[in-house]
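Continuing from the previous page of notes. For each protein in this section, the sequence appears first, followed by its structure tokens. Read the first protein now.
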Amino acid sequence: MVNERLDYNFVIGVAAMEGRGFYYPVDVAVAPDDKLFVLGRGHDGDPRGVQILMCDIESEYYGVFSSHGSDDGQFIWPTSISISGDGLIYVTDEYLNRISIFDLDGKFVRKWESGNGSGVKLLKPAGIATDKENSVWVVDNGASNIKKVSPQGETLLEFGELGDGQGQFNMPWGITISNSGDVYVADWGNDRIQKFTNTGEFIGEYGNDYSNSNNLRRPSDISVDSNGYMYVTDWGNHRLKVIAADGSAIQDLRGDASISKWAQDFLNSNPDENAARAESDLEPELDTDNWDLNEQSYHTEKFFWSPISVENYHDDLVIVVDRNRHRMQVLKINENI
């Protein structure tokens, strides 16, 4: 008998600094044709992982585009990705204070950045989302506000300021737009999710008023299905949280990953690596007296380790970008819950 909203399903990805694989991925977006575009950030010591990888839910690989740099179509600190219904890819870069725009073939189209005449001012842009009218919603992390931008780059709406009150933010990160047009923001520094109308009016907040075990700690992203269930990457707790439309805490997941198709291909081609893996203790008994949550996730391969973003895939699957494991965990939605 099914008694949970989400069940673990499968994994996509493998650790790789270039080509087919992820190196510190930070976000994923679903194109109108269901192709997945995975945003890689790499890290400051080795930026080779900066790329956008194209694949599908079956792990079919279609190639990569973009790279590290400050030229048109490149990124320094890519942060979030979204794809509009008219087939444009929007990517934020919090270092360059820029939004880069591509077509679905990976061709650079244009950019928005402060001072280039686009009409939108950006200060460390983080999360990005598009709505049914192809307007673009940007979390301006450095300004502690939310901006709605037209497809032409003109600011249509701006709301929020630094603080911990209703409609205020402290280092906001992820954003999503529900089917009904409501706006959900992962208010990272305030350990909560805030919900607004599409005109910026505050509706409610979630995540910091549960029991201690369910409280959010530095939530990084949120996705909402057609029934109003919220799926939150609880970055600070290394978990995925499920919250019902009424705000009640439904499920708390630590991750239950297995081997991906790409990882199995690698192991099949590298018998020494396969043998070393077989001898490793990938699920040790947790030393809860001496290991904090980060160490527990580090030592346990199946667990989420700094899950950073989440995407709803047709109200059927939930895709979680498992940043420090260089993979995506995919979970199945149980509609009868």
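Done with the first. The second protein uses the same format. Note its length before scrolling.
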Amino acid sequence: MNKKQWLQIVEVVGAFALIQGAVGVLHALTGLLGWGLIERVGFLDGHEVYGSIALIVLAIALFAAVEAQKKG
């Protein structure tokens, strides 16, 4: 695989993390959209909001890394 393909994979993983984090925060605040994966992780019981925020931060970091690689 070349560099461009790897960057696309990282972007897809970042998008997935962003969606799952947003769904987790939305579910914690409103009770809607309970289909996210973060609610099904056993060791995060009671700490789903923190896990969701961590996923959003991870997604932002992945997007920043991809952009840095594209410019460099």
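What the second structure shows: Residues 20 and 36 are 6 Å apart (CA to CA). The radius of gyration is 14 Å. We return to this in next week's lecture.
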